[in-house]
Amino acid sequence: MMEEKIFEAKSVDQAIEEACRVLGCLPEDLEIEILEHGSSGLFGIGAKKAKIKVRMKPEKLLSERANRAVMFLKELFLSGELKIEPQAQLEKDYVKINLEGEDAALFTANGGTALEALEFLTNKIVARRLGVGAKIVVDVNGFRENRERRLIKMAREAADKAKRTRKPISLPPMNAKERRIVHLALKDRRDVHTRSAGEGERRHVVVYPGPPRKK
Amino acid sequence: MGKLKELVEQMAKALVDNPDAVQVNEIEGEQTSVIELRVAKEDLGKVIGKQGRTARAMRTILSAASTKLRKRAVLEIIE
């Protein structure tokens, strides 16, 4: 739990503003207790500063989200008799949950679609209780990072091949998140450009030779 | 083979407003199990999700878990 902090300013509103600036949040993220309303006094004589005590609302706290997520996953794996232990780690603005144990590999098969599904469901369930907030990333021993690295490598190879053969190169079907990684990996290259093609499950990135056409 | 049923029950209960109304039935076949999920009428949207995304996520998780048992499992949401 985050501790309480005290802010002083000329007025209550200014004190709230200051609190939000320091804590990097919105006024609605805070529980605010007014200690002194403050007064401007007469010609500045006898002016009293406004004083407030603030605390981040619990649902905005990463640790709370992490606990919810871990609780859900633990119960889920227990009920399915899967040998997986979720371990939460608090990052700066998101929660990372790593799945450990012999059955964790069940979720990384087929390019990690099940991991994606688990992440989606976990976020949904946490948001249901605590509102929309910091994202929860579910991973199995760096699978996601590795996948990203593999995608970037794949994108660069396809770009080189497109340039060499002067023909468009189609990549395998990917979900929106993966396609985004590929598009971003090649966005600064002047010798190729990318576009997505196909519908639904078959949607994929095509790498075209030549500079991107101006719209 | 009761585990898959419980897995679905757990997911559904976490998603709905009326966890007590969640009912899960398993019809076991030789190779395929059909898992029927019933929820309160007003919770139907919660287990299906926008464009069926939540239902699809549950199916994907179910099939990942069922590979451990070398079985196929199908999730049917009963209206």
TrEMBL record, chain B:
Keywords: Cell shape, Cell wall biogenesis/degradation, Chaperone, Cytoplasm, RNA-binding. Transmembrane segments: none annotated. The keyword Cell wall biogenesis/degradation applies. It comes from the Bacteria. InterPro entries: KH_dom-like_a/b (IPR015946), KH_sf_prok-type (IPR009019), KhpA (IPR020627). One of its GO terms (molecular function) is RNA binding. Pfam families: KH_KhpA-B. GO terms for biological process: cell wall organization; peptidoglycan biosynthetic process; regulation of cell shape. It is found in: Cytoplasm. GO terms for cellular component: cytoplasm. The keyword Ubl conjugation does not apply. PROSITE patterns: KH_TYPE_1 (PS50084). Belongs to the KhpA RNA-binding protein family. HAMAP family: KhpA. PANTHER family: RNA-BINDING PROTEIN KHPA, UPF0109 PROTEIN SCO5592. A probable RNA chaperone. Forms a complex with KhpB which binds to cellular RNA and controls its expression. Plays a role in peptidoglycan (PG) homeostasis and cell length regulation. Forms a complex with KhpB. This is RNA-binding protein KhpA. It comes from Thermosulfurimonas dismutans.
